[in-house]
Amino acid sequence: MASTAGQRIPDVAGFAPRVAADSPKEAGKALRGRVPRAAHAGFTLPAGRPDAVRAVEESNAGRVAELTPIRVGRMAANPFAFLRGAAGLMAHDLSGGPVTGVGAQICGDAHAANFGLYGDARGRLVIDLNDFDETVFGPWEWDLKRLAASLVLAGRVVGADEDTCRAAALDSVGAYRRTMRLLAKLPALDAWNAIADEELVSHADARDLLGTLERVSEKARNNTSARFATKSTEKGPDGSCRFVDALPVLRRVADEEAAAVAASLGPYLQTLQGDRLPLLARYAIHDVAFRVVGTGSVGTRSYVVLLLDHRGEALVLQVKEARPSVLLPHLPGLGFTSPPEEHEGRRVVAGQKRMQVVSDIMLGWTTVDGRPYQVRQFRNRKGSVDPAALTPDELDDYGRMTGALLARAHAHSVDPRLLAGYCGKNEELDEAMATFAVAYADRTEADHADLVAAVRAGRIAAETGV
Question: Which helix (H) or strand (E) holds 243?
Answer without folding.
Answer: strand 241-243
